[in-house]
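Reminder to self: C-alpha cells first, then the designed residues, so the page reads top to bottom the way the pipeline ran.
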C-alpha cells in the first residue's frame, strides 16, 4: 500500500506574482506510482533541446539558443493522455460559494488538487508543489527574457501569466526572438509569462464551449489549470482550454489556478547583512511611515530574516538517445506532417551542432 499525496495550506506570503487567494501545498511521495516519470513531463538533451511528453507522446519539441537569443517550438501530438477527469455539470453546480471568494477558490483547489493526486496518469512528480489562484496581468506589465544565461538564476519565482488569447493560436512551428529590446507593447517583443495551449482550440459552436460561455456570463466559470515551466518562462494549459476560450468569447478575465514545483532553500545567516537591512528599514520609516511604506518595509524584513526561501525549478529527465534522438524525431515529424517554415529558422532548429 503506497502513500498518497498530502495536502497542506500554502503559507508563502510573497511568491512575486499577483495572487487571487490562499493556496495549497501538495507533497508527493517518492514511492509507488510517484517514483517513475509522470505522464506529463519535461525531457532535456544537450544544447538546450527540450521535449514535453505525455504518455510517451511528444507534445512540444523546444530549442533554446546557446546565447539565449531565441527559442523555437515545434508541436507534436496534440492529444492529452494525462487525462485529468472532465468536470461534470453536477460538479460545477455543487460549488455554490460566491465566485472569486476565498471559499470558492478553496472548493475548486481541492477538486482540481484531488484530480492531480490520482496516480493513473500523474502530472506530478515526487516532491512539493504549489497550487494557487493567480491573476493574469497585461502583457505590457510582464518582463522580458534574460539576454544571456548569466542572467538566469537557479530558483526563481514564477512570472505572472498573461495573454490568455494565446490558447487560440496553435501554430505547428514558431521561433521567438528573446533579444527584442523594444517597449513591451511593440510587435515582436516577447515577454515571460505567456500561456501556451497543449491542444488546438475547439470550434466556437462546440457544445462545451457554448456551455462554458453561459458560466462565463454569470461569473461561475471554473478556473483553468496552468502549469509554470521556468526554463521557458511560460505557463502550459493543463486543463480548461474550452473554459479559457469561453471567457475570451465573452470578454471576461478567466480565473486561473497556477501549479508549479516548489524548491525549498535554506538561507545562510548574515549578521552584517541583517544589520544593514535594519538600518535601511529605519531610514525608510523616518522618511514617512505611510501604510504602503510600512508594508514594503515589512516585506523587506521578512525576506531578509526568514531562514528559508521558496522558489520554483522545473525538473527534466534526459532524452533517451540524447541529441541524435531528439533531432531524428523532429525531422521525421516534419517529413510526415509537412507545414511551411522559414528556411533559416528551420535550419537553426534542426542543426546538428549543440
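Designed residues (354 positions):
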Amino acid at each position: 500500500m503506497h502513500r498518497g499525496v498530502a495536502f497542506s495550506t500554502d503559507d508563502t506570503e510573497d511568491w512575486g506574482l499577483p495572487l487571487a487567494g490562499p493556496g495549497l501545498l501538495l507533497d508527493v511521495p517518492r514511492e509507488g506510482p510517484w517514483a517513475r516519470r509522470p505522464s506529463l513531463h519535461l525531457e532535456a538533451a544537450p544544447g538546450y533541446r527540450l521535449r514535453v511528453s505525455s504518455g510517451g507522446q511528444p507534445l512540444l519539441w523546444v530549442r533554446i539558443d546557446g546565447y539565449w537569443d531565441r527559442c523555437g517550438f515545434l508541436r507534436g501530438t496534440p492529444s492529452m493522455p494525462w487525462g485529468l477527469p472532465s468536470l461534470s455539470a453536477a460538479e460545477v453546480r455543487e460549488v455554490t460559494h460566491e465566485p472569486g471568494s476565498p471559499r470558492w477558490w478553496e472548493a475548486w483547489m481541492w477538486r482540481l488538487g484531488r484530480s492531480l493526486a490520482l496516480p493513473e496518469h500523474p502530472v506530478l512528480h515526487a516532491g512539493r508543489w504549489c497550487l494557487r489562484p493567480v491573476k493574469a496581468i497585461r502583457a505590457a506589465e510582464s518582463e522580458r527574457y534574460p539576454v544571456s544565461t548569466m542572467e538566469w538564476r537557479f530558483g526563481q519565482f514564477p512570472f505572472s501569466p498573461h495573454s490568455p488569447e494565446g490558447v487560440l493560436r496553435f501554430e505547428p512551428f514558431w521561433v521567438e526572438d528573446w533579444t527584442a529590446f523594444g517597449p513591451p507593447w511593440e510587435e515582436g517583443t516577447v515577454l515571460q509569462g505567456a500561456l501556451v495551449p497543449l491542444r488546438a482550440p475547439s470550434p466556437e459552436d462546440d457544445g462545451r464551449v457554448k456551455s462554458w460561455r453561459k458560466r462565463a456570463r454569470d461569473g461561475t466559470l471554473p478556473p483553468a489549470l496552468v502549469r509554470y515551466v521556468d526554463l521557458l518562462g511560460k505557463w502550459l494549459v493543463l486543463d480548461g482550454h474550452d473554459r479559457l476560450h469561453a471567457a475570451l468569447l465573452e470578454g471576461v478575465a478567466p480565473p486561473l489556478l497556477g501549479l508549479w514545483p516548489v524548491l525549498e532553500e535554506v538561507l545562510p545567516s548574515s549578521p552584517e547583512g541583517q544589520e544593514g537591512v535594519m538600518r535601511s528599514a529605519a531610514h525608510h520609516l523616518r522618511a514617512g511611515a505611510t501604510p504602503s511604506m510600512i508594508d514594503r518595509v515589512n516585506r523587506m524584513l521578512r525576506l531578509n530574516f526568514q531562514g528559508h526561501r521558496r522558489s520554483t525549478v522545473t525538473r527534466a529527465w534526459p532524452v533517451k538517445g540524447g541529441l541524435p534522438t531528439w533531432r531524428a524525431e523532429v525531422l521525421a515529424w516534419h517529413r510526415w506532417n509537412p507545414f511551411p517554415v522559414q528556411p533559416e529558422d528551420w535550419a537553426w532548429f534542426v542543426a546538428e551542432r549543440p
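The chain has two domains: 6-265+312-347, 269-305.
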